[in-house]
């Protein structure tokens, strides 16, 4: 037979702990939505930049659709380098957004 | 008839025993410390995030996970750019890629929350050890109740009360042969697992067993209902 006072005490403890766990999970969800927002921002910016840079590539019309003009590889390499730099740039921004707070605490 | 949550319908009562007072004070002060530490360490953007204390290893683990994600996703994007500009892709294909450009959400989510969750478990384990409490009950956040599936790890263990040694043995067994390892010393069962623990003082064990059985039965009944729909 379980003591009634013990039961009430445990119920109180359980309620308290569940509230704390829900509180912590809400904090986890904040962390997730912060990271998710930063990721989406990066995706949008990079998508826009890539579309702009793709227009600068030398395209040559062919029956199946326009393809990169291999006769102008200098221009292709230049734009490709810009596209790759853009990825580095956006990921550096994303890294600062995601890691800057953590880096204050040191790293492995 | 709608199922009633047996925990939520109970009025909040004063916690009267010495054990409970100790637990309450410790847990509450733990949470206050967590919030203060989070503010100090993670700034406004990460104001109310899940790092309970300035634990160096947890921060390092978080940074390591996120760095791995950044490295892999930027590598994938760069490889695609090289392929699109050298492998004869059409302009339409390249534009389609650029318009739909996206990075792996699932892996980022795992990377971001797995260490905070582990640390949240660790803080309560540390407390239980200090208070010489042997038994722990497994709970999950309300938000995660819908993640319980019949036959899954959560449905097998949620609401159960076991000693810390027993939980550790289960943790070791569930982590064996898995690629996404959890931290065994925090009683994790897999990567980014959402469960948390409630220390059960010896004086309340009998009451806890009865109450946790109700909690477990309630959750599992709801899972059965969801699976019938």
Shape, per Cα inertia axes of chain B: elongated
The overall number of domains of chain A is: 1
Which structural category do the helix and sheet elements of chain B fall into? Answer: mainly alpha
Helix content of chain B: 55-70%
Number of helices of chain A: 2
- Beta-sheet strand percentage of chain A? under 5%
State the total count of DSSP E strands of chain A: 2
Number of DSSP strands of chain B?
Answer: 3
CA(first)-CA(last) distance of chain A: 53 Å
Q: Which two chains form the greatest contact, residue counts included?
A: A-B, 69 and 87 residues
Largest sheet geometry of chain B: 3 strands, antiparallel
Multimer state = heterodimer
Count of domains of chain B:
1
Q: Beta-sheet strand percentage of chain B?
A: 5-15%
Mean pLDDT of chain B: 72
Major sheet: arrangement of strands of chain B = 2-1-3
General description of the model:
The complex is a heterodimer of chains A (108) and B (229). In chain A, strands 1-2 form a two-stranded antiparallel sheet. Chain A has one domain (4-103). Chain A is rod-shaped, with a radius of gyration of 27 Å. By secondary structure, chain A is mainly alpha-helical. In chain A, a hairpin with a 6-residue loop joins strand 1 and strand 2 (67-68). Chain A contains two helices and two strands, in the order H-E-E-H. Chain A has helices at 4-56, 73-103; strands at 59-60, 67-68. Chain B is mainly α and 229 residues long. Chain B has one domain. In chain B, 58% of the residues lie in helices and 6% in strands. Chain B contains seven helices and three strands, in the order ααααβαβαβα. Chain B has helices spanning 18-42, 56-86, 91-99, 105-130, 153-157, 164-175, 205-228; strands at 135-139, 161-163, 196-200. In chain B, strands 2-1-3 form a three-stranded antiparallel beta sheet. Mean pLDDT of chain B is 72; it is low at 1-27 and 37-54. At the A-B interface, helix 1, strand 2 and helix 2 of A face helix 1, helix 2, helix 3, helix 4 and strand 3 of B.
């Amino acid at each position: 037979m379980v003591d009634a006072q013990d039961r009430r005490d445990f119920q109180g403890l359980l309620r308290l702990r569940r509230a704390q766990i829900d509180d912590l999970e809400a904090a986890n969800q904040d962390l997730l939505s912060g990271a998710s927002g930063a990721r989406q921002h990066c995706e949008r910016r990079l998508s826009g930049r890539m579309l702009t840079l793709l227009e600068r590539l030398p395209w040559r019309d062919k029956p199946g659709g326009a393809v990169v003009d291999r006769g102008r590889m200098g221009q292709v390499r230049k734009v490709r380098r810009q596209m790759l730099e853009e990825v580095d740039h956006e990921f550096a921004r994303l890294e600062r957004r995601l890691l800057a707070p953590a880096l204050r605490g040191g790293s492995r | 008839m709608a199922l009633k949550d047996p925990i939520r319908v109970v009025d909040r009562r004063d916690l009267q025993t010495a054990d409970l007072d100790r637990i309450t004070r410790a847990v509450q002060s733990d949470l206050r410390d967590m919030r203060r530490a989070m503010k100090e360490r993670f700034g406004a953007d990460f104001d109310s995030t899940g790092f309970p204390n300035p634990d160096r290893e947890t921060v390092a683990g978080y940074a390591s996970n996120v760095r791995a994600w950044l490295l892999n996703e930027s590598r994938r994007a760069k490889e695609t750019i090289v392929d699109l500009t050298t492998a004869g892709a059409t302009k339409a294909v390249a534009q389609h890629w650029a318009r739909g450009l996206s990075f792996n959400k699932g892996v980022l989510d795992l990377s971001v929350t797995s260490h905070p969750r582990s640390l949240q478990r660790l803080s309560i384990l540390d407390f239980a050890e200090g208070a010489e409490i042997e038994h722990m009950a497994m709970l999950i956040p309300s938000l995660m109740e819908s993640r319980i599936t019949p036959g899954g790890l959560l449905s097998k263990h949620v609401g159960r009360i076991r000693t810390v040694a027993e939980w550790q043995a289960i943790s070791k067994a569930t982590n064996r042969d898995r690629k996404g390892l959890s931290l065994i010393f925090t009683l994790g069962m897999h990567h980014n697992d959402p469960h948390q623990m409630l220390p059960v003082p010896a004086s309340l064990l009998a009451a806890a067993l009865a109450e946790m059985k109700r909690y477990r039965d309630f959750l599992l009944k709801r899972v059965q209902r969801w699976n019938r729909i």
